[in-house]
Design a protein that fits this description.
Elements (H helix, E strand, L loop, with lengths): L15 E3 L8 H5 L4 E4 L2 E4 L6 H13 L5 E3 L8 H8 L2 E4 L2 E3 L13 E3 L6 E3 L6 H9 L5 E3 L9 H8 L2 E5 L11 E3 L3 E4 L2 E5 L8 E5 L3 E5 L3 E3 L4 E3 L9 H10 L8 E4 L5 E2 L5 H14 L2
Parallel strand pairs: 8-9, 9-10, 10-11, 15-18
Antiparallel strand pairs: 1-4, 2-3, 5-6, 6-7, 7-8, 12-13, 13-14, 14-15, 16-17, 18-19
The structure holds iron/sulfur cluster and fe (ii) ion.
């Protein structure tokens, strides 16, 4: 729980604050971009919420902060919005695709997703195993598969797998911490129902992407919209395995011409105009070569 006595000096005065325990994971800035800003070492409130939607977005950011660094001050009259925010998750992004909130500290606050699929629902990476979220997922039909994009985003996947009897899917090179995963892949490409899983090494040796119904691309930490650059790319400073390999892995995605959503763990999610995905890949690859 956030401590007002440890409130960061940069917060603008008002209801909402970030405290010194912030780990600068960026989750709050993705949930409520107008209200949170980045300092090189932390996030802070740069604009207090001023309408119902902003209060709700900030409350969702608060619930998704992996270390509980965001709080409403003791005199706030808006704390009840937290109950409303809790009920939003999983929050629909588009069609049958949802974002879970409740980001996990063990994943450094990565976003995770839920996909409702008649052939078996998916969890994409792992949020915190919180009762409210688990009940909601159960009411939406439970889970059949848990896609683990890479070793950094395992979170509470074991708890979800046990509770729902779901199968965890990870690439062999990133499977050390989940050696009991139900499906360990060693193929370049695997199809399961409406999903295609592609091994995309680079960020880690075992990073993988999942393309659902040809339209939704889940990338883990492989590929995202990078706000600072204003386009999609990989994170040069967060490449733990090999940058040249990562560029080649980005090129593998150009086969999926109908992608309309890029849904990462870190970095911003983004919508792509129909038919523009190949150009987005081309631009990303050009930039990545320029910083190799
Ligand atoms: S979500 Fe929490 S830890 Fe992450 S940047 Fe925001 S305040 Fe900091
Ligand atoms: Fe990662």
């Amino acid at each position: 729980m956030a401590n007002i006595k440890k409130s960061i000096n940069e917060n603008v005065a008002g209801d909402l604050f970030v405290d010194e325990t912030c780990i600068n994971c960026d989750a709050c800035r993705r949930f409520s971009p107008p209200n949170f800003a980045v300092h090189p070492e932390f996030s802070y409130v740069n604009k207090q919420p001023s309408n119902e939607q902003e209060y709700l977005d900030c409350a969702m950011a608060l619930l998704s902060c992996p270390v509980g660094a965001i709080g409403f001050g003791p005199k706030s009259k808006h704390k009840n919005i937290l109950l409303q925010a809790r009920d939003q998750f999983p929050l629909q992004i588009d069609g049958d695709v949802y974002i879970n909130g409740f980001n996990h500290r063990k994943t450094f606050g990565a976003d995770s997703y839920f996909v409702k699929d008649n052939e078996g629902n998916w969890l994409i990476d792992s949020p915190r195993f919180t009762r409210k979220l688990v009940n909601k997922i159960e009411a939406m039909g439970g889970l059949s598969y848990i896609f683990l994009s890479h070793q950094d985003d395992i979170g509470d996947s074991e708890k979800f797998a046990k509770y729902f009897g779901a199968k965890r899917i990870i690439q062999i090179y990133d499977s050390q911490k989940v050696s009991d995963a139900e499906i360990i892949l060693d193929q370049k490409r695997t199809e399961i129902n409406s999903a295609v899983i592609v091994h995309t090494p680079g960020h880690t040796k075992g990073s993988q992407c999942l393309i659902w119904k040809g339209k939704y691309l889940f990338t883990g930490d492989h590929f995202a919209f990078i706000r600072r650059l204003g386009h999609f790319a990989s994170f040069r400073k967060a490449c733990w395995y090999d940058w040249t390999t990562q560029i080649k892995s980005i090129e593998l995605l150009q086969d999926f011409k109908n992608v309309e959503w890029v849904l990462p763990g870190h970095g911003s999610r983004g919508q792509v105009q129909k038919g523009e995905f190949p150009d987005i890949i081309k631009k990303a690859v050009e930039w990545m070569h320029s910083v190799a």
